[in-house]
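Need residues for this backbone.
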């Protein structure tokens, strides 16, 4: 069954008593025991809740893993996974990482004696050179933020297997609709479901899928022990969003391609980063491993004065952080999403004071282009 169909099936036929087509929101903290030493299968919502379970089983199916886990945010999901590692252990991480993940690794987990090396994970030999005897995992963004570098997940997963290292993929930008990292050999996927999966800029959530059942048991132990679970209402919202994942992404990608093409021809744009454009270095890798190029577009404007103009004069497009929703958003990564990354690293990566990032939504592409065009002109 195709992903689009599977996504619509999430939560269906859950409530056989009433036949409710959508899974109910089981807004309860606890569950009555039918007898001494007996359980309905649910005891306490941190440990398990039917609405959250429908979501967890749904994402596990979409990704082809043994088990899924829903957390209160993408960061909570990543923090929980990091607890799989112990004192003195080392991870190799994508260098142009989501700023919040970088902050979590450097400012929180480093205190507990975990070590991280940041490399260009689109270059497998760079990853290989960074492997040390104490390396236990790689954490890779399959399509990076904001420069849209492409990782060869199949190649990285093979390297990990050979060295006995866990391969964790943050697949937020592609989602299972466009890429299934577990099929490519990865061990764990993680999602900020806040983005494309929920898809409406209305919920913060994180999801994890684990391929191996034994490892999934460990992750479940950590999820229940730490307790940063997603509430029933938010679980329901993520399920509702996921049902339209395929149609939203089809439209968002179409729009992104059109806008990237338009920006490429604009005289006040220096450079466009979109993997669907010819000449993008990761284009071929992505073609071999993914079903599309996603809907994020980054671009450099000719001079810094245009940054403020575009952020403030766009009318349909909102100047806001986050991404993946139906509404088109524009951000300035240097001072927003990537402010926690050291300035010299930002400069080396190309996150500079003329770089803007668009998360393209489902509006009409011509309207979005007209909005950008009037903002470039800067008329009152
Ligand atoms: C947003 C994001 C996160 C963090 O997720 P939250 O839901 O905001 O906690 C992690 N990774 C990537 C790639 C993201 O875009």
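Answer:
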């Amino acid at each position: 069954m195709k992903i689009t169909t599977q996504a619509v099936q999430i939560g269906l036929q859950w409530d056989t008593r009433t036949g409710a087509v959508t899974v109910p929101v089981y807004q309860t903290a606890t569950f009555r025991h039918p007898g001494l030493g007996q359980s309905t299968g649910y005891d306490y919502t941190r440990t398990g809740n039917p609405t959250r379970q429908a979501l967890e089983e749904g994402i596990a199916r979409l990704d082809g893993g043994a088990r899924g886990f829903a957390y209160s945010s993408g960061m909570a999901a990543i923090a929980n996974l990091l607890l799989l590692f112990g004192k003195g252990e080392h991870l190799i991480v994508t260098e142009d990482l989501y700023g919040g993940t970088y902050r979590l690794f450097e400012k929180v987990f480093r205190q507990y004696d975990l070590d991280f090396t940041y490399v260009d994970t689109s270059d497998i030999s760079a990853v290989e050179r960074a492997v040390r005897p104490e390396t236990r995992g790689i954490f890779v963004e399959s399509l990076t933020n904001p420069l849209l570098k492409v990782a060869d997940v199949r190649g990285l997963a093979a390297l990990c297997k050979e060295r006995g290292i866990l391969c964790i993929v943050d697949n937020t930008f592609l989602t299972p609709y466009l890429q299934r990292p577990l099929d490519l050999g990865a061990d764990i996927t993680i999602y900020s479901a806040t983005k494309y999966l929920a898809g409406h800029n209305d919920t913060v959530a994180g999801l994890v899928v684990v391929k191996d059942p034994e490892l999934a048991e460990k992750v479940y132990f950590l999820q229940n022990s730490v307790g940063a679970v997603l509430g029933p209402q938010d679980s329901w919202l993520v399920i509702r969003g996921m049902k339209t994942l395929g149609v939203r992404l089809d439209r968002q990608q179409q729009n992104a391609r059109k806008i990237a093409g338009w920006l490429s021809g604009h005289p006040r744009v220096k450079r466009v980063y979109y993997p669907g454009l010819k000449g993008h270095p990761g284009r071929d890798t992505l073609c071999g491993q993914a079903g599309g190029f996603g809907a994020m577009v980054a671009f450099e404007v000719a001079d810094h004065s245009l940054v403020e103009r575009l952020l403030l004069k766009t009318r349909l497009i909102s100047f806001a952080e986050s991404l993946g929703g139906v509404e088109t958003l524009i951000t300035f990564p240097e001072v927003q999403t990537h402010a926690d990354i050291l300035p010299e690293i930002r400069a080396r990566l190309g996150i500079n004071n003329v770089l803007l990032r668009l998360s393209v939504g489902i509006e009409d592409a011509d309207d979005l282009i007209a909005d950008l065009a009037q903002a470039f002109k800067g008329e009152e």
